[in-house]
Structure formats: structure tokens, C-alpha cells
Design brief:
Blueprint (H helix, E strand, L loop, with lengths): L1 H22 L4 H23 L7
Helix pairs in contact: 1-2
Length: about 55
């Protein structure tokens, strides 16, 4: 559940940054590139932040 909340927050962040980039007239291709990179960063950091610790056996 916490990964879903993390992913939703990151999606809102990406949408806000993409809208800001649109307002400053960045080309659409660079907005898409930035969004794809941010999605990757969001997935990696979300998994890292919400991963359960492995039990020592």
C-alpha cells in the first residue's frame, strides 16, 4: 500500500514538472524524455523506500 501512495505522489510531481516545462515552452520531446527519466527514478526510489528487509536466516 505504501508503494501505491509513493507512486501517486511521484506521479503528481511528474505532472507538475511537465506542466511547468510546458509553460516555459520547452519542446514536447524534451518534456517526454524528462518524464520517462523521472518515472524510472520514481520506480527505483519507490521500491528502495518501501522494500521489506530480508530476514536473516
Amino acid at each position: 500500500m505504501s508503494f501505491g501512495i509513493y507512486a501517486a505522489g511521484f506521479a503528481i510531481l511528474i505532472a507538475g514538472l511537465a506542466y511547468a516545462a510546458h509553460l516555459v515552452h520547452l519542446p514536447a520531446q524534451w518534456i517526454a524524455v524528462g518524464a520517462i527519466i523521472m518515472i524510472g527514478v520514481g520506480i527505483l526510489s519507490g521500491v528502495k523506500a518501501t522494500r521489506q528487509k530480508d530476514s536473516a536466516k
